[in-house]
Amino acid sequence: MNMSTRIRRRHFLVGAGGTAVLGASGASVAILPAIAQDAQGGSLPSYADWKNPEAMVIHTELTLETVRDAIGTSVVTSNDVFFIRNNLNPPSEEVVQDRDAWEVSFEGVANPRTMTLGELKTLGLETVATIIQCSGNGRGLFDHDASGAPWRTGAAGCAVWSGVPVRAVAEELGGSVDGARFMTSTGGEELPEEVNRDEIVVERSVPLEAMENAILAFEMNGAPVPIAHGGPLRMIVPGYYGINNVKYVRTVAFTEEESTADIQVSGYRVRPVGESGAPDQPSMWDMKVKSWVIHPLMETTSGRVLIYGVAFGGTNPVERVEVSTDGGETWEDAEFTGPDLGRFAWRVFVLPAELEPGDYTVTSRATDSQGNVQEQTTEPNHRAYDYAGWDRLAVGVTVV
Ligand SMILES: Nc1nc2c(c(=O)[nH]1)N[C@H]1C(S)=C(S)[C@@H](COP(=O)(O)O)O[C@H]1N2
Ligand SMILES: [Mo]
């Protein structure tokens, strides 16, 4: 692939949208034909040619989705199936030739300066398991046409990241300036000269409190962060939507105001369909409580069936998951399985069920530690962000 800076706006629609059927509760439940979402979208782009092609739906060269059940059941999503979302072409391989030479500028601190990754590594080390989930994950489940990839469940993955705590860096540099209310991170992609910077730069501000848990990550699941996922260095803001986890981070600034980048001002804002994005609308910061089933999908054999999936609460621990096999009419508590990697990670849940031959609508509903319950449906919003409704996250399963 030609790595010169260039923006791709091709969006291949892969697989048909969900078919609406009436669940037992009378709720409109969408059946997801999981097979239709197989990786038939094209060949892997060169910067991601090490991905497992069987596990990826290639929407475009810059948007690769994980097939619903390819996230597996061992909590951590392996790098070779982890989804990719890039707004711009990633930097060239050269940036990972000498990772420790990568430079980051710190602004909005008492003693602003640029540090190399090698220097940063002397300041502290922290590991956090967190989910990266694109704001548009589930876009393909809405009825309205919104621009962007029609992701279903696969624009999300859970990884263990290690790196340098941002608070340790801020401390080293004399602390953030008085009046700072946001932490603003800028991506290191090369920008085309003819375009206004604000229109294209990946720059995101998050509330300053998010700094407490944020790390500058150089490792992902035990390997140096691949370029596809933001290497050599990526900002990780645990519990926050994907866009806030800025890859190839070049600048970290503690600012009084939010960034003036379009991505901050008007992008990633939740508003009614037809409305333009504006700074007074909610920004895609911390994530909503959400869960979905990854097994069974499509068809299974009658008798004892293990129903399982993943659940998370954004910045809150997930506390409970219920499973329904009748489209939300009745629910049963599932159990968590596997290690608890902390409140920012997802948990795998499982419920053994005895299923007779027939058609079932299988779905799950999570509750977080604050009592927030996963919503039944998600109201349409202009950019079709974060479908979290258990109605259309349901799967239609034929038991034979
Ligand atoms: N520098 C930079 N950071 C970025 C992006 C980008 O295009 N450039 N995309 C963001 C978006 S929209 C998402 S959903 C996540 C995707 O992370 P992943 O590709 O590692 O899964 O990265 C975010 N960080
Ligand atoms: Mo995203």
Automatic annotation (TrEMBL):
Keyword check for Cell cycle: no
The record ties this protein, via PROSITE patterns, to: TAT
Q: Which residues form the Moybdenum cofactor oxidoreductase dimerisation domain?
A: 283-380
Tell me the leader sequence span.
1-30
List the InterPro entries hit by this protein, alphabetically.
Answer: Ig_E-set, MoCF_OxRdtse_dimer, Mopterin_OxRdtase_euk, OxRdtase_Mopterin-bd_dom, OxRdtase_Mopterin-bd_sf, TAT_signal
Q: Which UniProt keywords apply?
A: Metal-binding, Molybdenum, Oxidoreductase, Signal
Entries under Pfam families matching the protein: Mo-co_dimer, Oxidored_molyb
User: What residues does the Oxidoreductase molybdopterin-binding domain cover?
Assistant: 97-260
Give the cofactors, semicolon-separated.
Mo-molybdopterin
Entry keyword annotation includes Zinc? no
Identification of the protein by name: Sulfite oxidase
